[in-house]
């Protein structure tokens, strides 16, 4: 659906009119989308700087921050979008209906992207980034409409501790002992029983059923940050609280990771704490710089990307099909670019990153046009 509202904080990944506008959240959302394009579309997937790769198993790279940042931002956006409606006494039934419909739409877009370009239903995959966003949004929105911030914090703690105990105390059936290695852990075993369709890694999937539980907590931490932003506290005090909470969360995740490794594929409890801490620190720094100090100019690209984030996400995937299959001189465009630049003497990993940066710039063009025309694509 196309709308022409004034740019606002947005719900989920897209922009919409809201009573509490945070330009910093718009910018953070947009730069996260840009980071997603950068890491997902290199010139050569075998020639990528370490931090622009997902960590193979345990550990944390720049790339591993993208997905949890999305979920954190969704949590903040839920508060900004629904707090006023709750206070005004809007009927929850209508809000539930819209939440469910929106979640289904986002999930459907995720399925469409999984199927293109061949639309081979025999190898269909039922999970992915947008699928997880849809589920986390729906669950977090329902939780927000029916709980206080203290209950949300308590629920987050229970889910993280419960997930930690389950994965470190329950032996993997068929193995007979606790395992946290790829494909032989409790999460992978559960998916093999209950997850339909193709798995991303054959015997396991990073967007698994059980790991959706702690991913909801990534949204809950964003909701707690959103609640803080709506308090009548002095804005500079809000920044202090946000930055302090971010530092404590990241530190807690680091030390928790010594016994329960930081792992995006399993979305471990330590991973949630570390990434939510970083997200809170980034939001705090951006809020201070943009909303309080007024340094907007440097964040304009992020605001433009963030205004139509879902459209950019979809456009990136569709353009990726073209720019990774378009034949140029007998090779795909990305391969020809890689070959030409490396032959000229440039380092392969740098060339691969340069191609990704150019791809980001290409996606900026339609995003800028939509922003200029005040067109905001909503699901």
TrEMBL record:
Pfam families: HGSNAT_cat. InterPro entries: HGSNAT_cat (IPR012429). It comes from the Bacteria. The chain crosses the membrane at residues 65-83, 99-117, 129-146, 153-170, 209-229, 241-260, 266-290, 302-324, 350-371. Residues 21-235 form the Heparan-alpha-glucosaminide N-acetyltransferase catalytic domain. The keyword Transferase applies. GO terms for molecular function: transferase activity. Keywords: Membrane, Transferase, Transmembrane, Transmembrane helix. The keyword Transmembrane helix applies. PANTHER family: LD22376P. This is Heparan-alpha-glucosaminide N-acetyltransferase. The lineage of its organism: Bacteria, Pseudomonadati, Bacteroidota, Cytophagia, Cytophagales.
